[in-house]
Specification:
single chain; alpha+beta; Jelly Rolls; Arc Repressor Mutant, subunit A; six-stranded antiparallel sheet; five-stranded mixed sheet; 10 helices; 11 strands; 44% helix; 23% strand
Length: 269
């Protein structure tokens, strides 16, 4: 089985940045099939554009734009790419980078998909820093990646605690229905849970209020659509569940720090 060295991915690398124990690559996937392999260091894969299927010994992930996967260094996997342009953003992590921040990946075994919208928005910010690559990008990247790992660790601790049965269906409803502004009463009826109970316990399991979580989901969906140059910002706003473009721009800027148009420009070479 092939081991890929640091910074090596199957495809055409558009950019590679390296500093302080991190290797950041932006790669166009060009292989229709990649046989079983593993990587020298643990890393994240973030799909910026297109689609790819990835399988390991336990699961198969159908990854579209906005999908985020973590892979530990010794976890074997394979890839299948359908026709079309697919682009992945990767961050590989050396042990001495982890040691510098007193971090451990011991609790992150194998490969797994990260679905938390807060973590995905942090990854879009990491991608943005790689495109800026100015004098503060290294510092900003370190801070953002530490936040990513701490958020994943915190989510794992929460998942380890017995969670109410209504949490998973609520996640699925919110993710699938961002085009609908469901009220608390409607969610309560769908779940068969008292609205006060949902409101009280939502922050415990999701890390923020219900309204904030829904807005983050909408921004996350919009980011996956931004690379499509044939879609206007108005179309993207509506397709992501925003009532109008002005609301979309305001919410996007609150979460990402820049406008959708500015972010879109940085996504293209």
């Amino acid at each position: 089985m092939k081991q890929l060295k640091t910074g090596q991915f199957f495809g055409e690398t558009n950019s590679r940045l390296e500093w302080g124990g991190l290797v950041v690559t932006d790669t166009e996937y060009t292989h229709e099939k990649v046989d079983w392999h593993y990587h020298e260091k643990p890393y994240f894969t973030f799909i910026i554009q297109g689609k790819v299927l990835e399988g390991n010994r336990k699961e198969i992930y159908e990854c579209t734009a906005g999908s985020l996967l973590f892979h530990n260094w010794d976890d074997a996997h394979y890839n299948l790419k359908p026709p079309g342009f697919t682009r992945g953003f990767h961050i590989e992590i050396a042990q001495h980078w982890l040691d510098r921040f007193d971090l451990s990946l011991d609790c992150l075994q194998g490969s797994f998909a990260v679905k938390n919208p807060e973590i995905k928005l942090l990854f879009y910010k990491l991608f943005n820093e790689s495109r800026l690559h100015d004098t503060t990008s290294h510092l900003a990247t370190d801070i953002l990646l530490v936040e990513v790992l701490e958020n994943i660790k915190g989510a794992n601790k929460t998942n380890a605690v017995s969670r109410p049965d209504w949490i998973k269906p609520l996640q699925e409803i919110l993710y699938e229905d961002t085009l609908q502004d469901l009220s608390l009463s409607e969610l309560s009826a769908l779940l068969g849970i008292h609205p006060v109970h949902i409101s009280r316990y939502f922050p415990k399991y999701f890390g923020c209020s219900l309204g904030t979580y829904i807005r983050k989901l909408k921004v996350e969906k919009s980011l996956a659509l931004l690379p499509d140059k044939y879609k206007s910002l108005t179309d993207i706003a509506l397709d992501s569940g925003f009532s109008d473009q002005s609301h979309f721009i305001r919410c996007f800027k609150e979460n990402m720090g820049i406008t959708p148009l500015a972010f879109r420009k940085r996504m293209h070479f």
